[in-house]
Structures are given as structure tokens and as C-alpha cells.
Amino acid sequence: MTPEEVVTVDRAHVWHPYAPMPARVDPYPVASAAGVRLRLTDGRELVDGMSSWWAAIHGYRHPVLDAAVVDQLGRMSHVMFGGLTHEPAVRLARSLVELSPPGLEHVFLSDSGSVSVEVAVKMCLQYQRGRGRPRRHRLATWRGGYHGDTFHPMSVCDPEGGMHHLWTDVLPRQVFTAEPPAGFDAPVDDAYVAELTDAVSRHADELAGVIVEPVVQGAGGMRFHNPHYLRVLREVTRAYDIPLVFDEIATGFGRTGRLFAAEHAGVAPDVMCVGKALTGGYLSLAATLCTSAIAEGIGAGGEVLAHGPTFMGNPLACAVANASLGLLGAGTWPAEVARVQTALRSGLEPLRGAPGVLDVRVLGAIGVVQLDHEVDMAAATAATVARGVWLRPFRDLIYTMPPYVTDDEDLARITEGVAAAVAAG
């Protein structure tokens, strides 16, 4: 197909994420990707400031990841996981248990982050039923969160400011506290600590679990919070035997400067969800990890965990996930993320105080510029593309989460692209 045909057929038939049909703005056709660059069909190259929605942490066409896919393809691309098993999945489960916070011993593989949250919710619900507490069927969280686009994950996204407010009247009604006070290094707000503790205590008899994004709230607003609030949740949930779920889909595998964001708080959840960067951005794969206490609680009721995606444990995805974890295991990522953080702070901090800019914040390989108005998506995107950068702003946010391997020159280009989006949007 010619580039023109691609756009024409796309406009007629392809429904893109978070977009109407037909789309109001044509997407940019990509011909290939390598390193940290996307090559468009018209020959232009864009430095990818988004890691393809935060997943491609090693960049594109990485030789180790490519080789893992090719090698596994020569063995088998897929086999059902019901009644069968295979080395790539077993190796991956073992690695995740070894790398994750202590106590998480069991791994349920699924297709996407949103489904991993569905599985986590089902684990919490079945745990309470197995313990003889079926009235504990609600979830608690704080506002400003995002956990996915399927129904139970939508119910714990922000019910007013989030993208799923359209479904408020049909979603399960969960327990929400105020969003955590902003600022990774901000002083602990004792009043907020009391609010968290009180909310969980008052609703303990009806809560199946508490779910939050640790340290960084992603698509709900790209907000950072003091890790101390995770320690508060850990203490109060343990007191009432309520499973604590950490959604590390966006933060896992080094994005915040720690392998998992939970490490900033020095606590371990009862259930943890991972996805996105799990395969280095190559294939869709996610996992829900839980403690033995959760697994035994589910089994105590004589029940199985009634969930089984068709492509559960897909060998291709597991093989490339193992290769990606191997690259992380080489130990260079902490220095890479620290370098990215330094470059983003240097490049974005001058935007503080610029017209229309409300806040600038950086943590690990995450850089955020928050405006005092909604971004003009078309204008901001055109401005960044004109400077050879790919970003995907949303709401009032222009942000970047680049691959860890992005060099200083390209990081400077990315921050220039953010500045161009701010000026245009």
C-alpha cells in the first residue's frame, strides 16, 4: 500500500484508542522503528519520547530481543496453557518471583495490563469468599488513579476527573479517598494519613481489597506522591486482613529509578500487577503476582481461580520477556534511568513559570509539564513532529517517558519537543 492508501483505509475502517469514529485527525503512518527512532512512511524520523506508551524501555529492534523472538519462533509460537506448560513461562514466573518485592510467590500470566488488574480484583474477591467473608466485595483506592479500560479496573479509576466518568452509573461503586498530596519529596500530610486510615477502617467489613498505583499515578494525571502513604496503607490493610494491590503496570521495571516503585516505600503488597515494559515493548503480556496467603485463601473455599485467557503464557511473549529481564539483570538500567532523569530535569526545568505552565516535575525516566489549560492535541503534536520528536499529550499534560537507552543528544531533542508543544498547545 502507498502511504496515502494507508491513511485513507485507516480513516475508513480503523478505530484508534480514545478516538471517535471516524477520527478527527489522521494518524502518522510508521514504516519502521529502530533504536529510539520511528521512521514515518514519508521518510521523516522521530525520536520516540513515549517508549510506545511506556513499554519499549530498550528501544526498538534490540538484537537480544529480536534473537529471542526468532529463536522461540523456531520452536513454537503458541500452545494452550490449560493442562500444558513450557520453559519460557516457567522461567519467566521464576524470574518475576525473584525480582519482585518479598512474599510474592505465585504468578498468573495474562494478555494485558487491564486484564491483570481484573485478575487481581478477582483474587481479592475470591480470597474474601474463601475466608467466609462474602460481604467484603468493594474496593478502596484514592482519586486520580488509572487502572485500565475493562469494567472492574474502570471502577477504581478516578470517577470524576478520569476518562471513564461516562460509565459511573453502571460501574460497581467503590470507596474513594482524596488523591494523595502531590510531590514525591513533599512533607507527609498527617491529615491525609488520618483520612486514609479512617477510610479503610470504617469500610473494613465491606472491603475485598485496596488498590493503588505506587508513587506515580499514570494516565490519571501523571502525579507523584510521597512513598510514606504506601506504608500507611500497608499497615492499615494488614490490621484488617485486606489485600493490598499495587498496580505497577506503568512503574515496574525501572521507570521510577527503582526496579519496582514499591521499593521507594520499602513495603511489599499482597498482589502486584505488571505489564507494559515486561516484554520490552515487543508483545502484549502482563502478570498478576500474589502471596501464598492469597492463593491459600482462594483455595480454602474449594474454588479455582476462574480465569484463563486463550493466549495465557504465550511462549513468544514469555521468551522475549525473559530476554528483556535479562537485559535489566545486566545492571546498567539504574545508571541509564539516572542519566535520563538528569537530562529531563535540565531540559524541562526552564519551562517552569512559562506562560500557561502550571507545574514541571521529573522522577526517574518520567518528565511532566502540566498546563493550566487543556492541550490542543493537533497543534502540540504537529509542533513536536516538526522538531523530529514523537510525544502523545493528553488532557492538560505534555509528558515524556523515553526509552532508557536514549542518549543525551536525543534527550535534549525530546525536551525541545516538549517546549515546542507547550508553546503550541
Automatic annotation (TrEMBL):
The modification N6-(pyridoxal phosphate)lysine is found at K276. The record marks Y18 as: Participates in the substrate recognition with KAPA and in a stacking interaction with the adenine ring of SAM. Keywords: Aminotransferase, Biotin biosynthesis, Cytoplasm, Pyridoxal phosphate, S-adenosyl-L-methionine, Transferase. Pyridoxal 5'-phosphate binds at G113, S114, D247, P309, T310. Its cofactor is pyridoxal 5'-phosphate. Belongs to the class-III pyridoxal-phosphate-dependent aminotransferase family. BioA subfamily. This is Adenosylmethionine-8-amino-7-oxononanoate aminotransferase. It comes from Micromonospora sonneratiae. The gene is bioA.
